[in-house]
Amino acid sequence: MTWINNIKRLLLAGVFLAIQLNATAQNFLGKNIKLALYSSTPLEDIRAVSNKCSGVIIKERREIAFQVPITSFEFDRKLMQEHFNENYMESERYPQAKFKGVIDPGPDLGKDGVYQVTATGILTVHGVDKKRTIPGKISISNGEIQVSAAFKVACVDHKIKIPKLMFTKIAEQINIKVEGKFNQLK
Amino acid sequence: MKKFRRFLVPILLIAAGAHAQDADSLLKTLDSVDKKEKIAATFKSTHVVLSHSTETEKKHDLDLRIRHHFGDIGGKFGSAHTLYGLDVASDLFIGLDYGVSDRFTVGVGRSKQEEMFNFSGKYKLLQQDLAKTMPINLTLFAQMGWIAREPFSENEFSKYSDRFSWIFQSIISRKISSRLSLQVMPGLTLRKNVSDTRDPEALVSVGFAGRMKLTKRFSFVADYTLVNGLSRPTDLSQAYYNPLGVGLEIETGGHIFSLNFMNSEYILENNFITNTKKSWTKGGVRFGFTISRNFTLFKSKNKDPDKRSDIY
């Protein structure tokens, strides 16, 4: 009866391989996602942009994750950039900010279309984890996913201290804007 | 069935492996922290206490620097009679440093002592990076000092070129940790205006400096320049001392205040390396401060509205 066993093995191997292939086919990667931050006070508006944010969507499990190197944020004034890294974000200690979560139940991500969604997960900034539900928009077409989101991060939530001594003012809530394209991982 | 199980287990493991390729491990493959990235802010300021640091101005940034050294705290010229030196202004300095590029800074200033004007250039040649392929910062510094005062005696500046002095320094620093930065500064000073004939016109010096961050905005800074005894005899008729300065640096975003104690009467390198006549041990220590304010000269040409910062 060895031939039956052989066929069984082959069938099983086939099934597992199919699952595996399927699993990789469901992953989407995004590189050079644009991440902009904006701090507004009556004294000054500070903006910065990073194009080095990367992201992953695992469609099957509705997982979504982003990460960005803090030092990749570019400011108008280099001194601001230095202060941002040195004094506020402590980039040498906490080189990355991260969000890892799950797209909340709602639209079927298998179908093309534009969906308003929320993702719930952990936002890690300045080494401090914070559970967040972040609203965003997902457009799916031809194996490509476009994601955009806008939300606020409170400095106090992530232990980013704004000293009273500052001459230039930084807002207590920083506006974040994310915009990027995810391509299917082949 | 034994065989079958033997076959099944690795397949399951491989399958599980595929599943374990979750968001985290995928993100890891995209890890975009640039290891070639330069290490910034080895020092907060372009100066430590008396000496220059390896830092240069950012491109198009102008730094207005106002410095003051008071008189002796103790000793014959200090104590309560001069309010511990606060009655005396031993040196005053106003200077501007401008970042031509992120690496190249030009500076001009004027000091009360000798009515000296200074013109300097500072070039950041090497910069320490994260990947540890470059372990140090190296900045080249050159400064000309021009004594503008009237001569004290008829033949003091017999040639006009005697009014000029030159400093050349290689400034080497390393950010040891985010809190601690250390620096060494071998240098050469050339001058004509010497009071003692045995005092060489060319002086070799080695400076040492450091910064210790106490909090994010307060740092303890210190520098010491070894000059006597190197190429200079220690038994000159006028006693000279090696300048030692310690200070507390306070950064407030655009401003840097520095509260200093040092034995040198002078502010400019061309004076303090060559002529420090006060000693820490004989009441010659004095208080001084520095105010540095940074301006960005040119309005941003950033077209990207997401990047443009506005100050109202």
Automatic annotation (TrEMBL), chain A:
Keyword Signal belongs to the record: yes
Report the leader peptide range: 1-25
Q: Is this entry keyworded Metal-binding?
A: no
Q: Which residues form the Lipid/polyisoprenoid-binding YceI-like domain?
A: 60-181
Q: Which residues form a coiled coil?
A: none
The protein's superkingdom reads Bacteria
The record's InterPro entries line, in alphabetical order, gives: Lipid/polyisoprenoid-bd_YceI, TTHA0802/YceI-like_sf
Supply the alphabetized keyword list: Signal
In Swiss-Prot or TrEMBL terms, this protein is called Lipid/polyisoprenoid-binding YceI-like domain-containing protein
User: What is the species of this protein?
Assistant: Pedobacter steynii
TrEMBL record, chain B:
**Which range is the signal sequence, renumbered to this chain?**
1-20
Q: Where's the DUF5777 domain?
A: 43-295
Keyword annotations for this protein, in alphabetical order, are: Signal
Which superkingdom, per the lineage?
A: Bacteria
The family database entries (InterPro entries) matched by this protein are listed as: DUF5777
Q: What is this protein called?
A: DUF5777 domain-containing protein
Tell me the organism: Pedobacter steynii
